[in-house]
Amino acid sequence: MSSSCDPQYAPIGDVSTALMLIDSRLQSVYEGKTATDPEQRRMVDQFAASLGAAGLDDLLEGTCTLIYMYMNWLRQACASQDEDVVGYSVPALVATMRMMPRTFKPEVVPMMAGLLIAAGTGLSPNLWRAQYGPWTKDEMNPLEATAVLLAEHINRIAGDDHSFATRLISDALGRLDEEEV
Questions:
Q1: Among 105, 143, 174, 179, which is least packed by CB within 10 angstroms?
Q2: Which of 5, 21, 100, 105 shows the shortest CA–CA distance to 60?
């Protein structure tokens, strides 16, 4: 039986731009820069302003698609080890969120955990979230940070390969492009 949150009904969004922003944030973390690096924040804010409302919606959908793709990869990796992706990944990610109270206010942690669980069980995080009303401004930084934490989690699983999660998505996008030609 199909769910209204089935990924086949979800817009994909601007995955390439979302990936670029998440990778940029990840690289800053690996270089030891803080999440509040003023130069990077200024550039991200300027870029976001240039997108307009429709572009920001596409970026938001693209970020949710990344979360879905990352959780799908984790689900497959966990299945090969007879592990449950939700039990393996979500508690560690939520614990990390709780250690970052400036990025993850306590009231957004359940929503971000829900996004991860939705994606981990094969549902579209964006469509799952839509059931609870429109996205709020207070959820934007936590959404980005959730995608970064998830990518970093995958990079650690891949033997501390700092670009594995980015290559994972880039390769998938490349295969899609080849299929379309």
A1: 179
A2: 21
Q: What is the pLDDT of residues 50-64, one digit of tens each?
A: 877 788 899 999 999
- The DSSP code for 7 is G
Q: Which residues contact 157 (CB under 8 A, 6 or more apart)?
A: 74, 77
Residue pointed to by tokens 């300027």:
46
Global pTM? 0.89
Those residues with Cβ within 8 angstroms of residue 167's Cβ, 6 or more apart along the chain or in another chain: none
24's tokens = 């940029």
Q: Is 159 helix (H, G, I), strand (E, B) or coil?
A: coil
Residue 139 and residue 88 in contact, taking contact as beta carbons nearer than 8 Å: no
Question: Residue 174's CB: how many other CB atoms inside 10 A?
Answer: 11
What residue spans define the domains of the chain? 63-180
